[in-house]
Amino acid sequence: MYKKLIVDSGKRMAKSGLTVETWGNISARDKDGGLVYLTPSAMSYEIIGEDDIVVADLAGNIVDGKRKPTVEFELHLGVYRVRPDVNAVVHTHPVYSQIFGVLREAIPAVIDEAAQILGGEVRCARYELPGTKELAAACAEALGRDGYACLLANHGAVCIGADMDAAFRVAKVLEMTAQIYAHARMIGRPRLLEKEQIAYMHDFAYHHYRQP
Ligand SMILES: [Zn+2]
What we know:
The protein has 212 residues and is α+β, with helices and mostly antiparallel strands. The protein is built from seven helices and eight strands, in the order αββββαβααβαββαα.
């Protein structure tokens, strides 16, 4: 079930426009077994099958799969180690979010969707080389205990959630927010939402926005 989830999510990623070619990577944690399912390294999302998915434990031992895991193996495991609330990690290379990664600036929650889904500004992690333990540490630090996403300096974004749909929702809202904020800065001076307004919308989205 988790292998299929990763295969399907790869196709979803390829169609989403949140990355190009084989960049970006995806993982999910099996809540019951504690194992992590990851995309393989350097393979197109279009051709990845269930046999290509790599399964690892939290200590980093590969327990199933014949492929080499994504180069950001450590980054994915690092998130699961410090965030028991997270069961899906989507690492993307989206254009507008990356503008702020290049500026090494946080993206403020300037629209309602961002306030609701991201719950505040999305911080930018310090620069570290791809695939390193240092990058994994910088990412975990930028996410903190309550972040839903962070930027990787001059590189991309990491979006997380309680499940895969939640992580993809974060990824889409982050890129839309970056796009609107970047354009707003080009033609004027964006007005930011107040902290209390963001907190109100975030609480509403996560605790009250549903059918009874
Ligand atoms: Zn990357």
